[in-house]
Every structure is written in C-alpha cells, then in structure tokens.
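Task card 7
Instruction: Convert sequence to structure tokens.
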Amino acid sequence: ESGATDEADDSEAQPSLMRLISRHTHHDLENERWNVYGQFTYISSWKQAFSAPYTNLNGSTNSLLPDAERSFTGSLTFYLAARIWKGGEVYLVPELISERPLSGLKGLGASIQNFELQKGGAETPTFYRSRAYLRQTFEFGGEPVKQESGQQQLGKTDTSRRLVLTAGNFSILDVFDKPMFDIDPRQGLLNIAFMTYAAYDFGADARGYAWGLTGELYWDNWAVRYGRITPPKQPNQLNIEWRLFKYFGDQIELEHDHKLHGHDGKVRLLMYRNHENIGKFSDAIAAFEADPSKNAAACTDFNYGSENAGAPDLCWVRRPNVKMGIGAYAEQEVAKDFGVFARGMFADGKTEVDAYSSTDRSLSAGALGHGTLWKRPLDVTGIAYDWAWISSPHAQYMAMGGIDGFLGDGALRQGSERAFDMFYSVNFLKALWLTGDYQHITNPGFNRDRGPVDVLAVRVHGEF
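Output:
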C-alpha cells in the first residue's frame, strides 16, 4: 500500500505492508534506490433514464442516450521507479484497462461521470505503457523537504530550493495542477469535472498521455512550472503528433504554499497555449454557409461520423490554429486532513476540443478530505459542484447541428452544464477502499432541452 497518511497518523498506519517488507529486506523507505507500487480500481456506474424531446437529431451522432445505461471501468497499474545516478530517477508505468462508457462516451461536456474513461477504449482489457520518463533534480539549498515513498515517487529528502526536469512519456497532470490535498484521484471525486480544470484542453493522446519536457523551479514556498507536450495527430485520437516545434501544447503555472491559522493552503495560476491542427467553429459555419455541400455528411477528411447533411463540420476547416486559456486554483485546509477548494478557467472558445473535454469555461468548488475528525483517518469523502459553459461560436455551431469530439444533439437550446458529485470511501484492511457515489448532471451537453441526469456509482480501489 502507499501508506499516504499524515505524520500524526503514522502510528495507526504502521506497520504498513511496505514497512513490514522493508524490515525484512532492508529496503530503506527514507532513501530509496528503487520501489514498486501497484493499484487496481473498478468503477461501475448506472445512469437513470431521463427526459429528452430529441436525440441525435437529423443524423447527428453525439447525444447522450436517454435510456438507462450501465458503464464500467477496470484498471490495473504498476509503478516502477529506480534511482540511476545522483538526482536522476527513471519511472515506468504499465497499465491494463477495460471500459464501457455511457453512450459511447458522447453527450457530456465537462461532466463525464467517471474520470477513468478513455476515448477509444474497449471492454476487452488493453495493456499499454502509460508512462516512461526520466526525472532529474538539481538542489540549490534551503530547508529539507521529505518526499514520502509512493506511486511515481522515490522516498528521499530534497531541499526547498531545487530544479526538477521531467522528460519522456507522462500525463501533464503528473506535474501541473496536482491532485487536491495530495489525495489520489482514484480515491476522490469520480466526475471528470473535478480531476482538473474542465476547460484545460491539455495536449494528450486519447488515453490522456503525452511526450514532452517540463521544468519545475521550487523556491521555498513558491514554485513555477513550464512544460511543452505533444498533441494528438487528429483531435481526440490515439496517434501522437511528433513535430513538437510545429504542433505543441505549452503551459506555465505559478504556485504559492501558505498557512492560514495554522492550516496548510495553496494557490495556483495556470496558463496554456496550444498550437495544433484544429478547426475554428466560426470557420466551419462560414464554410457551410458559403457552400452547403461542405456539410457534415459529405466530409472526406477525419470527422466523427455525423450523417447530418444540413450541418457544418470542422473537418473542412482544420488547419494550424492557436487555443489559449487561463485558470486559477485555491485549496485551504480548514480542519485536520479536511479542506475546501475552488478552481476556474476561461479558454478562448474559438476552436474544437483536441484532447480533454468540450468545455470553454469552467468553475468548480467543494470540500474534500480524510475522516480524521471522526477517527477514520484512511476514509475519504467529498462533495463538489461544477459549472461549465461553451462560447457563443461553439453554441452556434452545435445549434446548427454540428458535432465535436463529445457533443452534438443536432440542435441546442444553450445552457450551462452543471454537475453535483458526492461520495464516501470506506477504508478496510488499510489497502482497500469501497466507495459509494451520487451525481446529478443538469443540461447534459450544454442543452437545456435534455436532462437532468442522475448517476449512481460504486468503486473498489486497492493499493499494494
């Protein structure tokens, strides 16, 4: 197990499986040369039937189906790490995943009910390498900072002033907008709206991983990060665009840690700029109005299979375009191991989704933490609400019957898509968690004509 508890709870968490093993193998958790961790997670979701006056109107293909449905994901991951020289570490993360999304993963923008779902996944278990990267740390002094042994982290002590470089294959969320209160997302809120900014269209393949380089400069309570990563060759697809100096995703993040009335907190500012082969909504509308033969059903290039001959389509106008966004995040502990958070992002909304969700502006807030206050320090619970919007050009495009990577009912009466998520995760045997989760989604696909949608879920999560 990861044994990721605060110092005050170490006596209860020990002897953990890893520490028992270390006593008999002389594995030094304080100064590791290597480690191996693993996890498995199974999530089953049930969507209730909901009201919808139309679905996939006129041959459009991206509606959330109004019938009751079941979705699931099952993942098994191994985290391998080794120190290869002073400050140098290598990480390899193979993973196995099986999934069945709701409605083919269509019809929800910011509020996909299970963050483990991947575009293009299958029920047949698929084995792949999610990460393979090198991390190099250069220390510049300051106070000692203890890094606990865990997934993608060797146990060691760094200094508070250091430069960390990461190069290879990884998720940008391994470095930027790190998990709230250091809680593994697989133990936290299930809805994708709370994994990061819903409007953060970071570069990634269809599974959520990219190749690239990041740099993090830590200076006591401050940190600044920069990264350049690969986008997909075609929007929301698995193949990577390797021409990293022509097509790329850039991001920069500023972070400050603080204490308020003795409780930890942090704030972040994140900006991203993508240069990718993507289409503008206004260009697709203009092309269709100028020549109706340039419609969704007549596409000869990559598109999402729409048969709507009366709708515009982005396939006609994909070219090198820029997409930008800026977001802010804050978290604050308000009691031992329990805190509140808020994050919001404004993206320009001119271009289609390339790698994350079909959202142009997002705002979320909630509370998340461990059950320390009621003497269940390894339990995790939370409650949160997300608001998400699309831009005027995006809404006009969908109202005309257009579709993007996730959305398109064939018509649109625009509204904000909103998601409420609450869960409780019970720990037992220190390495296993059983979660019950409830979600309520309003205006699915940013469409006031459809919904609301209720989703119930159960999650089993284990670490070793």
